């Protein structure tokens, strides 16, 4: 038997216990829970085959009561002795995409971000569209290109047309960007024709991850009228490997900013699901931004209620992201297009003036929140490196 | 042994052989092929377990060479005697969603439709956006709400704001509409970072279905800026139960309309994949439109090349639809918003003046094309009935 030690101040204490999918040499991917700097093999430790699967989906489908029970089981297990062979150092395992993604939806829930992008993309119009304060604006993205942290990102090619150019040209994106977001993973699906209310959020949503919604701004700005972003986003979306259970986020729950006008009844929460999550963006190892999730105008419960109010069904593994997290200050902006004001105001990165991503650049987004034990818990990070365009398709 | 008889003039002759998933009382859903008015149980007739599955995905994943070989096997089989118990009258089986949907993309490839909607949604601007003739405009829809023909459609609720109203209200859509489209089913997926060229279309795409992309126009027109349609579409998308193999559409292949300006190289086809498919829309049993697919500006091969040119991967079961098929004539428009010009010019249906869908209305969209045997082949139909809003979520 092994006794787990959790380093002082660890972001992965007993009040966190995030789930992931990991593998070790010669063994198939399976579900693990992170405790301190260790990964506990749950199939082995708990003897339950639902954890011997390569995704969290079968476990998530078992529902909220079961999530609570397993969390108690794990707490008991890791407080005592864990069977030999069920504990691996986190540095010795490979982490995989933790869930099979169903539908992927991306919202646009930061007022600061939406107003900044409005000013940049539509300088002659009001920064916010008339609908923005009435509903959480969102759209569907490509579920099949969601990848786990650490996956390299090949610079996308596509049609780009700068304002002064007569016709579009084809080639690698010249304005490759990031979007620092939080993502929410549906655990218990809902039937077609059965909207999920705001207050059912915690019953349905299993947990949260960090999302980097890579964005090719030049492709996006040419293609996006009138049906929205498509190829400017669909080449890759990265998520962090650890799904932090919503059960671990009770101490992070805060009010959302004042919502004026008052939302329609289906968007009202008995108690708001704002989240006091601190995010940080590192560009080639240097911190360039600290987006505050607590500034988000719409809560993830409101996003889920909106997404299903028309009767749309949900499935275990559906992922919906918040949209770029930006605060009111310049150093709190979660996308480089905002941080550098469309490329016009470079930021210093390791002594260089930088605007958009160059080949070889690496971005890591991390996040922490208050835990229920008085300290903080971590989401880990989502990391990705930009590789040169392959030129295929030209 | 049973000898199959194919009625004279059947749209399901030996030059069609579409695949579906069917069940009979007490037996699990499995793959069948339609011949005349019969469904042949392929697992039983060919003794191959890949057809004993509830979706076409495992068979589609086997690739183009295998699709060709199985088509030859089936032709041989149904020309002779078929094992007893492997043949069912089509009226005696239940038809299911034939494939597990991965990502769902909806294009906007009819110039007539895009121009009509431009005039209706943005009366003060040019009907086509500047990008429209440079790329097949498209966006992601909700894969999880794709349903098979015959599934009832509950009228969606949502936020609606008419031009004269000060604020949005919540309630059932008052402008529920259809969109008659063709959909293309990816059979062999492609890797992230590996664009699919136009000329690889037939290697990758397994077949085609009819699509009804139900649309709540009042929800859509309020929500769609700036990120595109979302809840106005995501409540349901219906597909026909038979997937007509691309191998059956050789005689339907025609040129696309002249494309001016000339598309960028990645959108050029050695030989165009326009399709001479005749569609028909019935509203409560009365034909109200005959959309001509051959009028579509962009081909499905160009759509696939565009969708992947940024390196986005594809999977077996990915569905992409053409967008509403509308021809130049009024009687060729594939959506009621166009057919009735925003509701201002009602059409006569069974003696009534009609604009948008009422509860209890039923819409059936059918399609046929030239077959390789000199006659025509059928796609069957996609049918759906509108049920009243449930009021849930209000």
UniProtKB/TrEMBL annotation, chains A, B:
GO terms for biological process: homogentisate catabolic process; L-phenylalanine catabolic process; L-tyrosine catabolic process. Its EC number is 3.7.1.2. Pathway: Amino-acid degradation; L-phenylalanine degradation; acetoacetate and fumarate from L-phenylalanine: step 6/6. Substrate binds at residues 108, 122, 220, 224, 324. Its cofactor is Mg(2+); Ca(2+). Keywords: Calcium, Hydrolase, Magnesium, Metal-binding, Phenylalanine catabolism, Tyrosine catabolism. GO terms for molecular function: fumarylacetoacetase activity; metal ion binding. Mg(2+) binds at residues 213, 233, 237. The keyword Transferase does not apply. Ca(2+) binds at residues 106, 179, 181, 213. Residues 105-386 form the Fumarylacetoacetase-like C-terminal domain. This is fumarylacetoacetase.
């Amino acid at each position: 038997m092994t006794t787990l030690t959790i380093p002082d101040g660890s972001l992965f204490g007993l009040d966190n216990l995030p789930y992931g999918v990991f593998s070790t040499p010669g063994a198939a991917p399976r579900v693990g829970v992170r405790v301190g700097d260790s990964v506990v093999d749950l199939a082995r430790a708990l003897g339950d085959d639902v954890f011997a699967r390569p995704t969290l989906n079968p476990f998530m489908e078992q529902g909220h009561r079961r999530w609570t029970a397993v969390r108690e089981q794990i707490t008991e297990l890791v407080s005592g002795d864990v069977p030999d062979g069920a504990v691996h150092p986190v540095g010795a395992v490979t982490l995989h995409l933790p869930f099979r993604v169903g539908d992927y939806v991306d919202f646009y829930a930061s007022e600061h971000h939406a107003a900044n992008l409005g000013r940049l993309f539509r300088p002659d119009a009001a920064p916010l569209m008339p609908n923005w304060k009435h509903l959480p604006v969102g759209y569907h993205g490509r579920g099949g290109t969601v990848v786990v942290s650490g996956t390299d990102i090949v610079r996308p090619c596509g049609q780009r047309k700068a304002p002064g150019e007569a016709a579009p040209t084809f080639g690698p994106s010249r304005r490759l960007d990031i979007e620092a977001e939080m993502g929410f993973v549906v655990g218990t699906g809902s039937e077609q024709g059965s909207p999920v209310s705001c207050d059912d959020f915690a019953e349905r949503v299993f947990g949260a991850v960090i999302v980097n919604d890579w964005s090719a701004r030049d492709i996006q700005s040419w293609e996006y009228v009138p049906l929205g972003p498509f190829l400017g986003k669909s080449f890759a979306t990265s998520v962090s490997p650890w799904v932090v259970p919503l059960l671990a986020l009770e101490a992070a729950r805060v009010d959302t900013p004042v919502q004026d006008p008052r939302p329609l009844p289906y968007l009202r929460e008995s108690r708001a699901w704002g989240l006091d999550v601190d995010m940080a963006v590192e560009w080639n190892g240097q911190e360039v931004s600290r987006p505050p999730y607590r500034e988000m105008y719409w809560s993830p419960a409101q996003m889920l209620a909106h997404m299903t109010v028309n009767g749309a069904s949900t499935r275990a593994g559906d992922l919906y992201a918040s949209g770029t997290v930006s605060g009111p200050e310049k150093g709190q902006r979660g996308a480089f297009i905002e941080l550098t004001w469309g490329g016009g105001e470079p930021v210093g990165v390791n002594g260089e003036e930088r605007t958009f991503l160059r080949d070889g650049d690496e971005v890591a987004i991390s996040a922490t929140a208050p835990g229920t034990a008085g300290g903080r818990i971590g989401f880990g990070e989502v990391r990705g490196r930009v590789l040169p365009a392959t030129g295929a398709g030209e």
